[in-house]
Amino acid sequence: MARKAAAETATIEPRRSTRISSQPAPKAKRKADGEGSRVKKKTKKEADDSDELPQETVEQLQIGSSLAGLSITLPNQNGEDVEIGTIASERGVVLFLVPRADTPGCTQQACAYRDAYDKFTEAGYDVYCLSADEPGKQGKWKDKKSLPYNLLSDPKRAFISALGAGTTKTSRSHFVFAKGGVMVDKRMPVKPADSFKLALEAIHKESEKDEGGDKEEEDKKDEGDDGA
């Protein structure tokens, strides 16, 4: 009996709970910002947009600004270099911009300039099409639609940005530069079917101004001759 009593009065150690050991281990403390963090990759669109930004900043051109001295060289559809600062040194220039070559709206705009091309050349103006497309694509478009003027390729958007026509997407527009390179008119945005008509109107207005100035000079000369 003594042994049984002793066994009953013996202290029984409680069993260790298994609940604690079954809990998940605490998460490791996050590392300081930037430490060991993974670099987020650019999406394809972000990469494309960054590639399209101009390599150098050019002051934006406005009416009254001049192309003369502008240090931008772009290839035409044949890969031949064209110096933008000199394209209007001998003749006036109409420069129209399209968002993308060989698309419906851009083709309508380009073909309208094609059909009225003689009117521009007779007025003393050369025509250029400007886009961010590569020369090869422009060349195929030129041949496909029998476009008689040069197409300028500006994938880095250096000149497009200088004209204020967009850093990631080209705004459909046109710009008229008088002989010597001074900008006398710009339309942005413009409808594909209206672009060539508005450009011709600007040329006619500029021609009338020149004729008026010549007449005024002649009148002054005649007055001087009469008083001599």
UniProtKB/TrEMBL annotation:
<feature type="compositionally biased region" description="Basic and acidic residues">
    <location>
        <begin position="202"/>
        <end position="212"/>
    </location>
</feature>
<dbReference type="GO" id="GO:0045454">
    <property type="term" value="P:cell redox homeostasis"/>
</dbReference>
<dbReference type="GO" id="GO:0034599">
    <property type="term" value="P:cellular response to oxidative stress"/>
</dbReference>
<protein>
    <recommendedName>
        <fullName>thioredoxin-dependent peroxiredoxin</fullName>
        <ecNumber>1.11.1.24</ecNumber>
    </recommendedName>
</protein>
<dbReference type="Pfam" id="PF00578">
    <property type="entry name" value="AhpC-TSA"/>
</dbReference>
<feature type="domain" description="Thioredoxin">
    <location>
        <begin position="61"/>
        <end position="205"/>
    </location>
</feature>
<comment type="similarity">
    <text>Belongs to the peroxiredoxin family. BCP/PrxQ subfamily.</text>
</comment>
<dbReference type="GO" id="GO:0005737">
    <property type="term" value="C:cytoplasm"/>
</dbReference>
<dbReference type="InterPro" id="IPR000866">
    <property type="entry name" value="AhpC/TSA"/>
</dbReference>
<feature type="region of interest" description="Disordered">
    <location>
        <begin position="1"/>
        <end position="55"/>
    </location>
</feature>
<keyword id="KW-0575">Peroxidase</keyword>
<dbReference type="InterPro" id="IPR036249">
    <property type="entry name" value="Thioredoxin-like_sf"/>
</dbReference>
<keyword id="KW-0539">Nucleus</keyword>
<dbReference type="GO" id="GO:0005634">
    <property type="term" value="C:nucleus"/>
</dbReference>
<keyword id="KW-1015">Disulfide bond</keyword>
<comment type="subunit">
    <text>Monomer.</text>
</comment>
<feature type="region of interest" description="Disordered">
    <location>
        <begin position="201"/>
        <end position="228"/>
    </location>
</feature>
<feature type="compositionally biased region" description="Acidic residues">
    <location>
        <begin position="213"/>
        <end position="228"/>
    </location>
</feature>
<dbReference type="GO" id="GO:0008379">
    <property type="term" value="F:thioredoxin peroxidase activity"/>
</dbReference>
<keyword id="KW-0676">Redox-active center</keyword>
<dbReference type="InterPro" id="IPR013766">
    <property type="entry name" value="Thioredoxin_domain"/>
</dbReference>
<dbReference type="InterPro" id="IPR050924">
    <property type="entry name" value="Peroxiredoxin_BCP/PrxQ"/>
</dbReference>
<keyword id="KW-0049">Antioxidant</keyword>
<keyword id="KW-0560">Oxidoreductase</keyword>
